[in-house]
Every structure is written in structure tokens, then in C-alpha cells.
Amino acid sequence: MLLIEDLQKSYGQHEVLKGVALKVEKGEILGFVGGNGAGKTTTLNCITGLVEQDYGKVMINTVPKSQSLAYKKQFYFIPDTIHVFPNIAAYDWIHFVLGLYEKTDDAKLQSFIHIFGMEKSINKPMGTFSYGMLHKMALITAFTISPPILIMDEPLNGLDPLAVVAFKNCLKEYVENGGTVLFSTHLLDVAEKICRSICFLKDGKIILHEYLENLLVDGSLETIFMEKQANEG
Ligand SMILES: Nc1ncnc2c1ncn2[C@@H]1O[C@H](COP(=O)(O)OP(=O)(O)OP(=O)(O)O)[C@@H](O)[C@H]1O
């Protein structure tokens, strides 16, 4: 589904990604984990085109990143910071985005608005939204589009407990219907419950990529992460 080969990115003299290689199979829920500054956001931004890599290949569903429009229709990206047009109503904005993906199914959209409890806010200007509400809006958009792969940077940030439950249920259904997920998180206990596989990034390099069922034989994800962080140079 997603193939990354030898991804390299520097900001000035600072080498941030040092040859990241990753394969995400269809139906995966891959948790992308690493310390602050490890390069998770930079990797996701390179995959989604917010940032151009210096070197390396990225392909989704065999469509290379260079084929811009066809490539962009393969995924929906929720960044860590969601920038919006403050005076536009969330509902109108979502409709506009759905149109870009040719997925204007209003019944489906209404059902996700309901699932995330956004009925009362959806017609309000996005500039009036809290951080968590913006994330709910992005999740409603993502699940309505239901693209081949969902890529999310810290999607659980700001979500209230009800929304976290809704997120988990929607994610399960999305994957059962053929979707694939790549998301970064610092919440190892949540990752342990949601993900099928885990990838640890340290100093711009992948130090582990494994199915959870194989990993958890050796202890909790938290313990394994601490050991890997300490042991990998
Ligand atoms: N636009 C930029 N210009 C210069 N340096 C940058 C830029 N974006 C990121 N960096 C640097 O690249 C490194 C990796 O940052 P990145 O945001 O990818 O890490 P991260 O793993 O997502 O961290 P966190 O868990 O804190 O969100 C950091 O040292 C950061 O300072």
C-alpha cells in the first residue's frame, strides 16, 4: 500500500531523516512512535507532500509521489496543527474537501457528524473551534472520504474520551472495509490497543518495525520502547 525507500531530509546542516525505509501493507494500522524530534512529523510531511524530501522514493498503491493529483487521492492527511479559514463554516469546508475527492455522500457525512457529536457546531465558523473540535472535524472528513490510506499526526491530541472511543470504532470499521492507517502517537498504551504493528523512529532512523503480537511477547510496549531507546545508538 505505502512504500518508502531511503527517505532523506535535512534542514540546513541538520540531517533529520537518515534513510527511512518502510512498507505498510493494506489493512495495517501502523503506529509511528519516537521521542520528540525523532523525525515523525517530517516523515509524514514528506509522504504527504507538505515537505519535499532531499532523496528517496515514496509510493502509495504503486502511484509515485511525483504523480501529484493521482497520488493525493490515495490518502487523507490529518496534520498535528490544523490550519483553517476562520470565517468558513465547518460543514461547507468539509463539503468542499469531499468534492475534491469526489466523495459527496451526505448521508455518510451526517452519520460521522453524529458519531463525533458535532451536530450543534458543524455549521459554525471554523475560527470558533477548539483544538479538539478541529480534530473531530478532520476525522469526520477523513472517515467520510474513506481513502485507501489514512495518515495522521497525533490524531488523539485534544479528543475528549467520547471522541477517543468514536475514533477507535471508526478506525476498526474503516480497516475492516479495506482501509490502511499510518499514525504517529506518543500514547503507547493507546497504540498497544489500536495498532497491528509498531514502528520506532530514533534520530531519523527506523530502529524497529514489528507486529504487535510478536512484540508484546517480551513485555509492554512501554518497556520495549524504553529498552530500544536506551540500547540503540
Ligand atoms: N521547518 C523546519 N526547519 C528546521 N528544522 C526543522 C523543521 N521542521 C522540523 N525540524 C527539526 O527536525 C527535527 C525533527 O522534527 P519532527 O517535527 O519531524 O520530529 P517529531 O518526531 O515529529 O517530534 P515531536 O514528537 O516532538 O512532534 C527536529 O529537530 C526539528 O527541530
Give a brief rundown of this model:
With 233 residues, the protein is an alpha/beta fold.
Write the layout of secondary structure elements.
Elements: E1 2-11, E2 14-24, E3 29-34, H1 40-48, E4 55-60, E5 63-64, H2 68-72, E6 75-78, H3 90-100, H4 106-115, H5 131-145, E7 149-153, H6 161-176, E8 180-184, H7 188-194, E9 197-202, E10 205-211, H8 212-215, H9 221-231
Adenosine-5'-triphosphate is lined by residues 11, 14, 16, 34, 36-42.
GO molecular function, one term: ATP binding
Keywords: ATP-binding, Nucleotide-binding, Transport
Domain ABC transporter: 2-228
Characteristic terms for this protein:
6-stranded mixed beta sheet; P-loop_NTPase; 9 helices; 233 residues; ATP-binding cassette domain-containing protein; alpha/beta; AAA+_ATPase; 10 strands; binds adenosine-5'-triphosphate; Rossmann fold; ABC_Transporter_VariousFunc; transport; 27% strand; 4-stranded antiparallel beta sheet
